[in-house]
Amino acid sequence: MRLTGKKVIALVDEEFEDLELWYPVYRVREEGAEVHLAGLEKGKTYTGKYGVPALAEYAFDELNSKDYDGILVPGGWAPDKLRRYNKVLQLVREMNEDKKPIGQICHAGWVLISAKILDGRTVTSTPGIRDDMENAGSIWKDEAVVVDGHIISARRPPDLPPYGKAFCDALAQER
């Protein structure tokens, strides 16, 4: 269990992409890490695009990035909401400053754009937000997974297996 002792934040809001939240969460847990689901409201059940629920164990405002080793940002329509919360952007910026693994898939790139951490970074996303990613200063690639230092990005659900592995690999290396 190479990730024993590691703690990860998984962000949630309404209409997250079900697989893009749960697959990485379970993948990280399989390797021994503790994952905390966080939403705007602690105790609220958020519903994915396909109806899968996710209970927020913590509110964003309760979290301190120093207590965590990485963060997962799911895709779906949730990122368009998540990027509007100052605390979410603060957490992502602090994780970036501390070079802790940041996992983003599909539309999750919107959160990293709003956190203003993509300038000069090489990433991928759903092709639908390629222009947004490039306009934020990133170098966009049409690849299943792109790892640029501590930022791990993927395009869409079929890319989940290599994305989950790449995020776990980065988390295992994080000190």
UniProtKB/TrEMBL annotation:
Gene3D superfamilies in alphabetical order: 3.40.50.880
CDD domains: GATase1_PfpI_like
Keyword Cell cycle attributed: no
Start and end residues of each DJ-1/PfpI domain: 6-167
Pfam families linked: DJ-1_PfpI (PF01965)
Any one Gene Ontology molecular-function term assigned to this protein's record: transferase activity
Superkingdom of origin: Bacteria
Keywords: Glutamine amidotransferase, Transferase
Parts forming coiled coils: none
Family membership: Belongs to the peptidase C56 family.
Protein name: Glutamine amidotransferase
